[in-house]
Specification:
A hairpin with a 5-residue loop joins strand 25 and strand 26. The protein is mainly beta. The chain has six helices and 45 strands.
Length: 655
């Protein structure tokens, strides 16, 4: 009896110890090994295959992370394949008809991992052929957002054969608008892609955010896309590379020279863009504020809409405020009778895009209702008056100065400057409502010299490029000097008679000793129209200028780190422009200086840079990248950490 009990307890201890080795730091090593393929049916690399069901067996239970998104089958499957796990196997059922003499690849990328520890089996691809041979060529590279140079993750990259029948630009455009791509892959977190199973030949390559799942660019769909101007020819060479094995996080165990097949090209760069949608249609109207109504369109037009009041006279009773592109048009109502009218009916005639892409005239009738009715607004005014009256009565009872007439609402003024100013800066004033009159005689600027104040020259101008409710106060700001900006009451009066109050603002222009300067030379771009931009840590534009023959100069830079980029302004319109696939027009190029520029007070920094020294995917500084993942599978290294804690070497079989 005692002997039986002894064996029972011993068995229990062994069982507990064995279980601990699966993940307990007190009982054994962690499982850090990814799943291993034991067999495939049909065998990986098989030829003359007719069956559409593939089974892949592993040495442990596995799961697939979002198969529909992360597993890519090539040629692309119009009818999505069924991909499921079954115990220690993955079963793929192809629903499309198999093509003759075609290599099929199923790229699992990093989607397969074990069920217990989540160890990822990285870059696993299965292939077979319906013909006599397997196509083994590959092409690779990166897809970047053309405007930000951020890697584009999860976008399709595909190939078309450069057939002899495709000779005109219109043929290329038509093909990508109507035919599914031949071979496809998806980008990882770094924007990297590798299209596998490619036949020898000549190809055109594209990237596509395939929203509708048809594997070609749907016209006017807003799908992000990219294309290469030239064709590519896949090739392969015998090459060697260094494989480094680490003993731990700091020590190298060995560096081995390994022979491998190097598939080319492997450095294709595709700059993805979304075409500006030029189809014009009416989106909506809005009258959230009773004083105005706004019309929204999907795209601008050189002709503003013709608006006619049906139950009121709109002519000469409004002020027009339109956006830069004329896609948003606001009508400020001058007449308070109209402001107080809850229901305004208008007839609007405008141009919209028809099915042929032409602008045609369209007329709509709209009823415009305020968010808050006149009755409720009137009640709110009454409540406000009663509250004001109570306060004034309290002052009267206390013998304090009081008012018997409620003052009109104050016109609020917002200023872009508070206490300090850069020498190349000006003061921006903005208002919530349009301004009727500006009395510049009531706007004063004084400069302090020694202990005395003197009048300083100033100029006030409106800034319609921002909006009609914005003004700029300009002056020759002297570094290191103090200024006083003084506004008399009623310097600004809006269209409803509301006026600004008297206001006095003191400010100081910083001394030149607080600034540095930067000159960036990029002779490789001399002769091109170049917009140069300085960015802060968040990527926001701090300063911008037009380069002069490959040189950009920036003055009055505060002491901090900046980032620098340039835009090749091909059409010289002063801004970055996206691409247009139907015209095979690439987006304008952007280059990033690959490191921060440290500006220091009283320093004049001169840098020389060749934007072509680094590939685009390596240019953007890490501090500006939104996607910082490198897209590689990494082990948790729990075993290595445990070995270091125990003061022992990690067993070789676990390295």
């Amino acid at each position: 009896m005692k002997r039986s009990l002894f064996f029972f307890l011993a068995a229990a201890v062994i069982t507990v110890a064995g279980c601990a080795r699966m993940g307990s730091p007190d009982g054994g090593w962690y499982d850090e090994k990814p799943p291993v393929v034991l067999s495939t049916s049909p065998a990986d690399g098989s030829v003359n295959i007719k069956q559409k069901k593939i089974t892949i067996a592993f040495d442990e239970y596995v799961v697939i992370d979002n198969a529909s998104e992360n597993v890519v089958i090539s040629p692309p499957q119009i009818e999505q394949a069924d991909i499921k796990t079954k115990g220690k196997s993955i079963v793929v059922a192809l629903n499309d008809t198999l093509r003759e003499n075609t290599t099929y690849t199923i790229d699992f990328s990093n989607a397969v991992k074990d069920n217990n520890e989540g160890n990822v089996m990285g870059n696993f691809t299965y292939s077979f052929s319906t013909g006599e041979a397997i196509d083994t060529m590959q092409v690779g590279g990166y897809v970047l957002d053309a405007e930000t140079l951020e890697p584009v993750e999860g976008i399709l990259v595909g190939l078309y054969a450069a057939a002899d029948t495709i000779v005109e630009d219109s043929d290329i455009v038509k093909q990508f608008h109507s035919e599914p791509m031949l071979r496809v892959a998806k980008t990882d977190q770094t924007g990297h892609f590798s299209v596998k199973g490619v036949k020898p030949g000549e190809y055109r390559i594209y990237a596509l955010n395939d929203v509708d799942g048809n594997f070609f660019l749907t016209p006017n769909s807003g799908e992000q896309t990219a294309f290469l101007d030239e064709t590519i020819i896949p090739s392969v060479i015998d090459d060697t590379r260094q494989d480094t094995t680490m003993l731990d996080s700091l020590r190298i165990k060995s560096i081995d020279i390994v022979a491998y097949k190097h598939f080319l090209p492997d450095n294709i760069l595709l700059r993805a863009f979304t075409e500006e949608q030029t189809g014009r249609y009416f989106v909506k109207s809005d009258r959230s504020d009773a004083e105005k109504f706004t019309l929204f369109f999907s795209y601008g037009d050189s002709l503003l809409p013709d608006v006619r009041g049906l139950n009121f006279d709109l002519e000469n009773n409004f002020i027009l405020e339109n956006s830069e592109k004329n896609d948003t048009v606001t009508y400020w109502l001058r007449d308070t009778i109209l402001v107080n009218t809850d229901s305004l009916e208008i007839e609007m005639t405008y141009r919209m895009t028809d099915t042929l892409g032409c602008l045609v005239s369209e007329t709509d009738t709209l009823m415009l209702l305020p968010k808050i009715s006149y009755e409720k607004r009137l009640k709110q005014k009454k409540d406000d008056f009663e509250d004001w009256q109570k306060q004034e009565n309290k002052k009267k009872k206390r013998g304090q100065p009081y008012d018997s007439i409620m003052p009109p609402p104050e016109l609020k003024l917002q200023s872009s400057v508070k206490n300090t100013l850069d020498p190349d800066q000006n003061i921006i004033y903005s208002f919530d409502t349009p301004i009727e009159t500006v009395d510049t005689a009531k706007i004063h600027l004084y400069i302090k010299r020694d202990t005395l104040w003197f009048n300083a020259r100033r100029l006030l101008r409106d800034k319609p490029e921002i909006n009609i409710r914005t003004y700029e106060l300009l002056a020759e700001w002297q570094p290191g000097c103090e200024y006083s900006v003084e506004l008399d009451s009623a310097a600004f009066i809006d269209i409803y008679g509301n006026a600004t109050k008297a206001e006095k603002t003191g400010l100081k222009v910083k001394s030149l000793d607080e600034y540095g300067t930067l000159q960036m030379n990029f002779p490789a771009l001399a002769g091109k129209n170049v917009i140069a931009q300085l960015l802060d840590q968040s990527g926001k534009i701090v300063k911008e200028c037009t380069a002069d023959n490959g040189t950009a100069k920036f003055w009055y830079l505060a002491e901090k780190d900046y980032f620098f980029r340039v835009i090749i302004d091909d059409n010289a319109n002063g801004k970055w422009d996206s691409g247009l696939f139907d015209s095979l027009l690439q987006p304008e190029q952007i280059f990033y200086y690959p490191k921060p520029v440290a500006c220091r007070a009283k320093w004049d920094i001169v840098e020389t840079w060749n934007p072509f020294d680094k590939q685009l995917n390596e240019q953007k500084p890490s501090q500006l990248r939104k996607n910082t993942s490198r897209g590689k599978t990494t082990q948790s290294n729990k075993n290595r950490q445990r070995a270091e804690k125990l003061g022992i070497d990690l067993p070789e079989e676990l390295q």
